[in-house]
Write a structure and sequence with these properties.
alpha/beta; Peroxisomal Thiolase, Chain A, domain 1; 2 domains; 5-stranded mixed β-sheet; binds coenzyme A
């Protein structure tokens, strides 16, 4: 059976840069602390008029152009996000309208930072089953809108952006999405959450006053679970396909913290020159980080036909996921 494959990629970052020095003026922090603890130097912030679907649209158009596919030829659009324009309609439906992709079904995927790989796994299944020919998978976030700009433990971490992948059938069995693996443990959901604004705690004066519509994270605890989980996730993914870390030409991890990325790469024996990093320039962009890093690697010629590329993510839910691709 032919595999599904990523045929083309695209990405978009908002223009406005917010540097660590800018943040020093907002909260009690320092460039030195942020750089040493996270690897982040600056992040992008969406313009006031830009919502999730606006970022997604620009990334999507670039992916469609690179793939030579028209919006009308899309069968399915998924947007992985925790910051959709609105709960209803979904960001994917708004994007479908903006693209004029009137034949495509559309829905959002909420798996936090693992969202892009979760959505990729859905695309993989729809294509392999023959139900879809062209699927657009977008990771898009405007995290600056759910960031508490008075909380130094989180506001230094996040950024806005979007990445897109056009997924279709591979021409033969030699390349494509070899495996996609998705996991969750809802018992640890409290570690990373936006407490208010849903049906559990609807918006009220009280929730607004207490900053409960902002993202909260137990960073240190999540960090330790992430490092432990990611090493075995990658090892199991490779072993299942009879590969070892040395076979990987490009490792594209979710960009939560440079220390997590380095620790994972080091434990696996993958040198940093084979690791895609954008966290220094973009911060943690949740579901957008992997497709943006992948697009950068593809456009700079870092990924070549026949290369093994490994994607991995860990995030709120908790969720974690991996994908092994042969380019
Ligand atoms: N500037 C200066 N000091 C800060 C700070 C900031 N922006 N944020 C926190 N601190 C302080 C804390 O108050 C604490 O001070 P104390 O020791 O006096 O109490 C100290 O720095 C250490 O805080 P801690 O939270 O233990 O730091 P850390 O090394 O764990 O780094 C994160 C914090 C958030 C950068 C890190 O835990 C992380 O990146 N976690 C990622 C989690 C993850 O993977 N999430 C899933 C995907 S999104």
């Amino acid at each position: 059976m032919p595999l599904a494959r990523i045929k083309a990629t695209g990405s978009y970052v908002p223009r406005k840069r917010l540097t660590n020095l800018d943040l020093e003026k907002i909260v009690d922090t320092s460039d030195e602390w942020i750089t040493a603890r996270t690897g982040i130097k600056e992040r992008r912030i969406a313009a006031p008029a830009e919502a999730c679907s606006d970022l997604a649209l620009k990334a999507a158009r670039r992916a469609l152009k690179a793939g030579g596919v028209k919006a009308l030829d899309l069968d399915l659009i998924m947007v992985a996000t925790v910051t959709p324009d609105t709960f209803v309609p979904s960001a994917a439906c708004v994007l479908q309208s903006k693209l004029g992709a009137s034949k495509a079904a559309a829905f959002d995927v909420n798996a936090a930072c693992s969202g892009f790989i979760y959505a990729l796994s859905v695309a993989d299944s729809f294509i392999k089953s023959g139900r879809c020919g062209n699927v657009l998978v977008v990771g898009a976030e405007v995290l600056s809108r759910v960031t508490n700009w008075q909380d130094r433990s989180t506001c230094v971490l996040f950024g806005d952006g979007a990445g897109a992948a056009l997924v279709g059938q591979a021409p033969d069995e030699t390349g494509g999405i070899i495996s996609v693996n998705i996991y969750a443990d809802g018992n640890m959901g409290d570690l990373l959450m936006i407490p208010a604004g849903g049906s559990r705690m609807p918006a009220s004066q009280d929730t607004l006053k207490n900053n409960l519509h902002y993202l909260q994270m137990s960073g240190n605890e999540t960090f330790k679970i992430a490092v432990k989980t990611l090493e075995s996730l990658v090892r199991n993914t490779l072993e299942a396909s009879g590969l070892t870390p040395s076979d990987i030409s490009l490792f594209v991890p979710h960009q939560a913290n440079l220390r997590i990325i380095r620790a994972t790469a080091e434990r696996l024996g993958i040198p940093m020159d084979r690791v895609a990093v954008n966290i220094d320039r973009l911060g943690n962009t949740s579901a957008a980080s992997i497709p943006m890093a992948l697009d950068e690697a593809v456009r700079s010629g870092r990924v070549k036909s026949g290369d093994y590329v490994l994607l991995e993510a860990f995030g709120g839910g908790l969720t974690w996921a991996s994908a092994l691709l042969r380019w």
